[in-house]
Design brief:
The complex is a heterodimer of chains A (about 110) and B (about 140). Chain A contains two helices and five strands. Chain A is α+β, with helices and mostly antiparallel strands. Chain B is about 20% helix and about 40% strand. The chains are: A alpha+beta (about 110), B alpha+beta (about 140).
């Protein structure tokens, strides 16, 4: 009897999990540790470009790169492309990366914009 | 309990009748509000300029505290941060039709830098409408 009820609970949990997963549209590149690879004094500009792709803006001959970042509670953070109309809609953060003369990350900040 | 809850029903009814009368007589209602427009960034406000100190604040510090600017001059020595707020909601009723909308005010915090990349001047531009673009600036 106890074995049967445990089996029913497991079945219900699986069905709920399937239902929840089915309702979620996967966001390309979304990750809870999207920017955890960034290390001051270590991470190079090339690594950033390879991992995060094209920045939303480039300043001072690539010394400063910025990315626009969205966030989904379940899927994590993801990079967004700037749009001409309503440029900050759906954007939660502006990621600012400042590099030194050797192209290594010198300063960074994730600024909440919305 | 809020003070409004203590207001006698007769007073509330009078207010409702006055508002209804104004809408009926003029066909127009304007409600003052104050919130960010859809698609606007929300991390900048007129008070932001107080934390920017000319001669002290560097360009890197501005980037790292305010994020990506919305405008940048061709020489990169002027940055603009833009935002838009809804200041009023309007409603017009005429016959069998009606229309409504938002009255927006747009702002740009313009930061100019000297040759040593330290802040030289802070300016707040604002205009009624959905956008304000500083002259000779390139939109990002």
């Amino acid at each position: 009897m106890r074995k049967t009820s445990k089996w029913i609970v497991n079945l219900c949990a699986s069905l709920v999990a399937c239902w929840l997963t089915g309702c979620t549209t996967p966001i390309p590149g979304a990750s809870h540790d999207l920017i955890s690879f960034l290390k001051i004094g270590e991470t190079t500009r090339e690594t950033v470009l390879l991992k995060l792709g094209q920045p939303s803006a480039i300043f001072e001959h690539e010394r400063i790169l910025t990315y626009r970042v969205g966030e989904d509670p379940r899927q994590g953070r993801y990079i967004l492309t700037p749009r001409a109309m309503m440029p900050w809609q759906h954007i939660h953060y502006s990621l600012v990366l400042v590099f030194d003369d050797q192209g290594r990350l010198a300063k960074q900040n994730l600024i909440t914009v919305n | 309990m809020t003070p409004q809850a203590h207001r006698p029903p007769a007073v509330r009814l009078s207010l409702l009748l006055i508002v209804s009368g104004v809408v009926w007589l003029t066909g127009c209602l304007i409600i003052p509000v104050d919130y960010h427009a859809a698609g606007s960034r929300q991390n900048i406000n007129p008070g932001t300029s107080r934390s920017m100190l000319p001669g002290t604040t560097t360009k890197d510090e501005v980037f790292l505290s305010l994020g990506e600017p919305d405008f940048v001059s061709d020489d990169g020595q002027r940055l603009g941060y833009a935002w838009t707020k809804v200041k009023a909601l309007w409603l017009v009723i005429g016959g069998s039709s009606s229309a409504s909308g938002e009255l927006e005010r747009s702002y740009v915090l313009e930061l100019s830098f000297a040759g040593d990349d330290r802040l030289a001047q802070v300016r707040l531009l604002n205009e009624w409408g959905p956008s304000v673009t500083p002259s000779r600036e390139r939109k990002r």
